Amino acid sequence: MEKRVYFRSRTLPYLLLAPQVAVTLVFFFWPAAQALWQSMLEQDVFGMGAEFVWFDNFKVLLDSQEYRQSFHVTAIFSVLVAFFGLAISLLLAVFANRVIRAASTYKTLLIWPYAVAPAVAAVLWVFMFSPGMGILAVGLQRLGIGWNPLLNGQDALTLVIIAAVWKQVSYNFLFFLAGLQAIPRSLIEAAAIDGASPSRRFWNIVFPLLSPTTFFLLVINVIYAFFDTFAIIDAATQGGPGRDTSILVYKVYRDGFLGLDLGSSAAQSVILMGIVIALTVVQFRYIDRKVNY
User: Fold this and answer.
1) Rg (alpha carbons) of the chain, rounded to whole number
2) Angle at 149 between CA 146 and CA 152, to 5 degrees
3) d(CA 27, CA 22)
4) For the range 274-283, what are the long-range contacts, defined as Cβ-Cβ under 8 Å and sequence gap of 24 or more?
5) Closest listed residue to residue 173, CA positions, set 255, 256, 249, 114
6) Which of 139-143, 175-179, 192-196, 286-290 has the highest mean pLDDT?
7) N or C: which terminus of the chain has fewer CB atoms within 10 Å of its end residue's CB?
8) What confidence tens digit (pLDDT) does each residue in 125-163 have?
9) Where are the domains of the chain?
10) CA 50, 56, 62, 67: dihedral to nearest 10 degrees?
11) Facing residues of 73 across strands?
């Protein structure tokens, strides 16, 4: 029989919700409102005064070639990080889900990178791709491939993409592995008896049943690429060389904390927040329709 809980006091439900509502208001809505207000101000570098300029900060940003370049870099970076992060982790989860010897050891080793701090992960890959001393950079040079992320913008962008993907693969791997283990083996065995090839079983049975997990990880990885990769870029390239790895979240930091242009930095944070909200809405509105729950 269905059990229901009735609150005898009318104020008790509101008291139970109050802590979560307070946290949401203080740590999300209030900072968002402050950012929106500051984006319409032109403030003195030393904080001695501010002038209300309406949407002038946004107009200057949209007319800036440097800001448009940051948009371009962020689009490439986020798409590649999300795609390769999901593809590699799904491949690893499929292999780890097989019944093999020492499977638990392999799974444990694949989870370890998630415990590494983003800045440490960036420094690790910087050393391996360092020209003249990095083992990977030296190997590429012996193959006749020139590699120098300190001078070449494409090499630097490739470096931060690899570091960001490597850092996120373990997180994706955990969810994909859990999703694979939740799929009934009887479905796959029945398809194998009917003569379906391994690739056909995967694309027609396994992958559709993984669609809720894939959709969830897609949203998480997009947000990760936009926000949580700040430490990787700061430790690896600091947005350089030039502005070739300066994604939107790092430009907010550089203009606001290093350039002390608080109005422009606040306007950039508002635009960035709007982009992420729009992408999330699009994902839930259109991509979610193709998810089989």
Assistant:
1) 24
2) 70
3) 8
4) 275/226, 275/248, 276/222, 276/223, 276/226, 276/227, 279/222, 280/219, 280/222, 280/223, 283/215, 283/218, 283/219, 283/222
5) 114
6) 175-179
7) N
8) 999 998 878 888 888 888 888 888 888 899 999 999 999
9) 56-290
10) -20
11) none
Which residue is listed with tokens 């796959």?
Answer: 188
Cβ 292 vs Cβ 209: under 8 Å: yes
A 10 A CB-CB count for 234 gives 17
CA atoms within 13 A on the CB side of 158: 13
CA distances from 96 to 25, 72, 159 (A): 42, 36, 27
Placement of tokens 């994706």 in the chain:
172
Q: From 236, 234, 285, 259, select the one nearest 66 (Cα to Cα).
A: 259
Residue 196 CA to residue 209 CA, distance in Å, equals: 17
Whether 128 contacts 136, CB under 8 Å? yes
The whole-number pLDDT of residue 250 equals 92
Q: What is the CATH number of domain 56-290?
A: 1.10.3720.10
Beta strands in 149-217 (DSSP E): none
Joined together, the tokens standing for residue 13 give 């439900």
Could you tell me the pLDDT band of residue 47, with boundaries at 50, 70 and 90? low
Under a CB-based contact definition with an 8 Å cutoff, are residues 191 and 201 in contact? yes
Please give the structure tokens belonging to residue 170: 């373990």
Contacts for 172 with CB less than 8 Å, ≥ 6 apart? 85, 86, 89, 90, 217, 221
The DSSP symbol for 224 reads I
| CA dist., res. 236 & res. 92, Å (int) | 26
- Calpha distance 155→276 (Å, rounded): 27
What's the mean pLDDT in 229-236?
Answer: 92
Query: Does position 100 have pLDDT exceeding 70, yes or no?
Result: no
What pTM does this model have? 0.86
